[in-house]
Each structure stands twice: as C-alpha cells, then as structure tokens.
C-alpha cells in the first residue's frame, strides 16, 4: 500500500501550506488513490466496462454512432483471456425498457433467459452476442438478473446494452412519417419510434453487423437458439427478413374496409392460401440484404408508405409488425416465411371478440414447437 505511506507523508506537511494549496494537494492525492484503486480493479460481470463507439468512416449513410453502454463478456469454462476476434458471432436483440417497473416483464425475462441457457449450445469458436435496448434503471436491473440467469451457460456470450434515448433520437427522422399509420392514437410521437427499430435497423447498426435476430421478451425456448440462425441460409433471393405469420384474425379485422371493397381478396384470409399478416415476436433481419434492396428502401419513403396505407385502407397500432404486414401484401418476395413453430403464439383474444367461428383456421400450427410466444400475457405451457 505504497500510496497510503505517500498520503501520510504529504499530510504531515499540510501545516506549511496555505488553505488553497491544501485543497489542490488533497484533490491530487485523491486522484492518485482513484487511479490505483479503480485502475487495478479486475473487471467482473457487473462492473461497467469501456464505452465503445462504432463509426463508419467514409460512409455516405447517416449511420448512428451506437453507444454501447456496457460490454460484458463470458468465456465458457474459462475466466482468463478474451473473446477471439475470429469468433463467429450470432447476434440477438431484445427490447428491455421499463422492466424495472414491471414484475410481469421481469418474470417473462426470467423464463426467456433460463430456457435459452438451458437449450443453448454453440460450437468452439462461436459466441452468442445479446443486445438489449434499455433505459438506465432497467439496465442496472438487467445486469443483476443476467448474472444469475447466465451463470450456467455452456457457451460463450457477450452482452451489450444500448441507450434507448440515443436510438430513438436516430430512428425518429427515419420512421416519423410511418408512425401515424401504425401507432396507437393519432400523430407521430417521438417515444413511439423505438417500436420501429427493426424497420430501420440496417440504417442504425454498423455495416459490419450483417445479420441479427430480434426477439420479444415473452418467449420460452424449447430448442437450441443456434438452430434459429440456420434459417437465414434458407432465405430465397430478394428476401430481407424471416418472420412468422400472425396466428389470430388480427388483420382480417384491420383490413376490414379493404376486404369489403375487394370481396375476393386473399388479404386477411387464413392460411394456407390466405395472407394473414405477420407477427413480430421473432424476426430474422438480414441487414446486408436490407441495405442492398432498392425495393425495400423505396418502401420506407414517406410517400410510398402513405400510398400503400391508402391503397389498403390501413390503420394499425402494432408498430413494425403492421408495416411489415402491409408491405408483405404487396411484396411477399421480401419475406421468408418462418415456420409457425419458431413463434408459436398463444394469445386467443380474438377468439372471444367476434371471430370465434374462424379463429382456429388462424391459430392452428402443425409441426414441432421450437419457441412459445406468450403474447397478450398468455400462460406458457410447462416443459
């Protein structure tokens, strides 16, 4: 403790200094103490780590400099070293806002993470990178919860927390025009922008990030999440994302006026021949394909959004899910149809609200269930 001896020697000479000199000397001494104490601290799971700015030099795109507030790394079966730069990364993102205020969200997060860890298996040289879009209070809670949930993980992982305020600031100019068509209430509210993150993520994330899976919190995994990423390899040419169909007659209802004016339409009809719309609980986003698709980026322009909304007499309230559903009616080639078992929705609200006669046509899901989705607070079956 050499710095303590130094401190004692300095303090012994305090009487020879005037008061302002003493204040300056004390401040310098405290700085030395802080350097020794914090500089020598070994980073643990819960310690705040370096802030990383990811920038795109020589880029004409107005990319955001994503601030990664916390970087937490785990090496399976080893606490030494660091993740290798050559590791193959599997990126997954979850919204994690206002979790500190909701016991229900905390319980859902527990189920999701524990089931993910239980079934998760990755090969040597692979790492699961978990991204959480969060406010500060939820981040602090999330770090503590993840310490518990991930302690038995058999795979390498990294965790990043992204500041929801900064992301909202970057998203709003891109998605403002579409919010009035796909948000609850009227107008385009700044805070609603975050619900359109998946729509414009290819503009927000750095170009080095080429694929990412976006997941709701209210999920329960029944298989290895690594298998979900293999679905990217099944995308047909031109597809920019993989997504599961909606399993309730939500869009049979939402497109009511268009369906009335076009009685022979497939829009809003149940599978296998109809177009029931999409559910955004599990989405595979091919960010490279989204960036490269002239068609997809044209559809983001305000005049094209308004044109389609008018054409289909569409007014939704489910954010990105509504946007993808609407453009999917016109351009199904942009989407890879993910098997219903990857997002087995459990909500039955519409069965009891006017659509009981056709409900089962939408709700039916044949084949194995890989991920349960407890949407609208539906209970998830036990293992």
From TrEMBL:
GO terms for molecular function, please?
xylosyl alpha-1,3-xylosyltransferase activity
Instruction: Give the signal peptide as a residue range, or say none if absent.
Output: none
Parts of the chain that traverse the membrane: 20-39
Entry GO CC: endoplasmic reticulum membrane
Q: Name one GO biological process term.
A: protein O-linked glycosylation via N-acetyl-galactosamine
Cite the PANTHER family for this sequence.
XYLOSIDE XYLOSYLTRANSFERASE 1 (PTHR46612)
Q: Does the keyword Chloroplast apply?
A: no
UniProt keyword annotations, A-Z = Membrane, Transmembrane, Transmembrane helix
**Protein name per its UniProtKB record:** Xyloside xylosyltransferase 1
């Amino acid at each position: 403790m050499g710095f303590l001896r130094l401190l004692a020697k300095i303090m012994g000479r305090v009487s020879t200094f005037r008061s302002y000199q003493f204040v300056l000397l004390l401040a310098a001494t405290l700085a030395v103490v802080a350097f020794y104490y914090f500089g020598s601290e070994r980073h643990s799971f819960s310690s705040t780590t370096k802030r990383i700015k990811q920038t795109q030099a020589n880029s004409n795109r107005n990319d955001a400099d994503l601030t990664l507030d916390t970087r937490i790394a785990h090496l399976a079966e080893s606490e030494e070293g660091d993740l290798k730069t050559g590791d193959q990364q599997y990126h997954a993102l979850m919204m994690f806002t206002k979790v500190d205020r909701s016991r229900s969200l905390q319980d859902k997060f527990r189920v999701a993470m524990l089931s993910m860890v239980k079934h998760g298996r990755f090969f040597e040289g692979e790492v699961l990178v978990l991204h959480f879009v969060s406010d500060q209070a939820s981040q602090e809670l999330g770090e503590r919860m993840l310490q518990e949930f991930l302690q038995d993980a058999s795979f390498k992982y990294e965790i990043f927390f992204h500041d929801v305020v900064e992301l909202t600031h970057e998203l709003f100019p891109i998605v403002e025009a579409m919010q009035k068509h796909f948000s609850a209430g009227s107008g385009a509210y700044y805070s609603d922008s975050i619900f359109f993150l998946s729509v414009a993520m290819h503009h927000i994330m750095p170009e080095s990030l080429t694929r990412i899976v976006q997941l709701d919190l209210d999920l329960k995994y029944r298989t290895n999440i690594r298998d979900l990423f293999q679905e990217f390899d099944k995308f047909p040419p031109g597809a920019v994302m993989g997504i599961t169909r909606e399993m309730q007659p939500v869009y049979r209802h939402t497109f009511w006026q268009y369906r009335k004016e076009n009685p022979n339409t497939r829009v809003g009809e149940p599978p296998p021949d109809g177009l029931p719309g999409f559910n955004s609980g599990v989405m595979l986003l091919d960010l490279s394909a989204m960036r490269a698709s002239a068609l997809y980026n044209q559809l983001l322009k305000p005049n094209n959004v308004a044109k389609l909304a008018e054409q289909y007499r569409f007014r939704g309230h489910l954010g990105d899910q509504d946007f993808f559903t609407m453009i999917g009616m016109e351009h199904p080639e942009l989407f890879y149809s993910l098997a219903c078992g990857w997002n087995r929705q459990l909500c039955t609200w519409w069965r009891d609200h006017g659509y009981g006669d056709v409900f089962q046509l939408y709700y039916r899901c044949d084949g194995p269930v890989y991920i349960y989705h407890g949407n609208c607070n539906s209970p998830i079956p036990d293992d």
